[in-house]
Amino acid sequence: MEPTQNPDPTHPEVLGDAGALAAAGEALRPLPLAELHLHIEGTLQPELIFELAERNGMELPYAGLEELRGLYEFTDLQSFLDLYYANMAVLQTEQDFADMTRAYLARAAAAGVRHAEIMMDPQAHLSRGISLETCVNGVASALATSVQEFGISTLLIAAFLRDLPEEAALGVLDSLLAMNAPIAAIGLDSAEVGNPPAKFERLFGRAREAGLRLTAHAGEEGPPSYIIDALDILGVERIDHGIRCMEDPELVERLVEDRIPLTVCPLSNVRLRAVDTLADHPLPAMLAAGLNVSVNSDDPAYFGGYVDDNFAQLNAVFALSEFDRARLAANSIHSSFASEERKAELLKELNDI
Ligand code: ES4
Ligand code: ZN
């Protein structure tokens, strides 16, 4: 990458050497990239939760924003999921889903995101009496104008809750297919430990037959064997998180060899205590091992930041080289489910920086 040619005095971050400024704690210029691991319900900011509650005439169990914000201290994945599912109660209408999605896209554009693969949890809404049409059409209506409004191409991933029975997931997949929902892929999320990939072998088989792309959370809290089973039993093309692969050198070798994408979410891993501190995060070791890793925000409203915040904090701790930052961005583009044409466009944009 070339240093900035035309320094703009109104944007001090582009003056001089970006690396030196980053080391001094200044903002990095965001690189164009793809966000591949993002739960749209995890973009629901506390302010929007209150706004939607008021619009829908609902009483929240919190006196105000500060009380709600005080609850964002998590001890593990489940302690986060409890608040994440509770806060979804305010999502009632198509407009609510559309407003949440549009707010994410606006913020993601500022973070450098040029392509977003957005997961949603239909079962978390069905169980509250919200129809598939309401949640899918609401999110999809915001995605429909994303290229125009935000310059972000998008696709939608229906994620299934692994702590529910496979039968439930099969029913929802059939309904999504019957309504011709605009989904490109399926994912697998929620409480990992005790819900291994093998539980969803038929679901992933059916999705593959329907022509959908496949990804699954594995190796976030669960052991390396869950990553192996997601690949071998579910046939996924991508692993969400996957950080615990580092405990199994043979698995690392396989993931490197096969260029399996791992959508890593550093701030999420810190906030859910998968790692003690960001300085203990395996990302630099994963890069050094030659793994195909990207940086993603997971549930940015809950974990302290969007993809640019993840990069900024990584950079503050590890002083990533410009080469590594460009590699992470290029990995995200190569690992996306976008068309070859769109990938080429984004890679060119990255190269021209
Ligand atoms: C999730 Cl961080 C994480 N892990 C598993 N399932 C999830 N759903 C939303 N965020
Ligand atoms: Zn996730």
Structure, explained:
With 353 residues, the chain is an alpha/beta fold. The chain has one domain (30-351): Metal-dependent hydrolases (TIM Barrel, Alpha-Beta Barrel). Helix content is 47%, strand content 13%. The chain has 18 helices and eight strands. An eight-stranded parallel β-sheet has the order 1-2-3-4-5-6-7-8. Helix 5 packs parallel to helix 7 (132-143). The chain is globular. The relative contact order is 0.14. The model is unreliable at 1-24 (pLDDT under 50).
Tell me the name of the CATH homologous superfamily.
Metal-dependent hydrolases
Mean pLDDT: 94
CATH architecture: Alpha-Beta Barrel
Assign the CATH topology: TIM Barrel
Question: What structural class results from the helix and strand content?
Answer: alpha/beta
Name the beta content range. Answer: 5-15%
Write out the distinct hetero groups bound to the structure.
Answer: 6-chloro-9H-purine, zinc ion
Overall number of strands: 8
Sequence stretches where pLDDT stays below 50 over 5 or more residues = 1-24
Strand order of the largest sheet: 1-2-3-4-5-6-7-8
What is the alpha-carbon Rg in Å?
Answer: 20 Å
Q: Can you tell me the CATH class?
A: Alpha Beta
Give a short account of the largest sheet.
Answer: 8 strands, parallel
- The string of secondary-structure elements, in order, is HEHHHHEHHHEHEHEHEHEHHEHHHH
- The helicity comes to 40-55%
> Which geometry do the CA atoms define?
globular
Number of domain units = 1
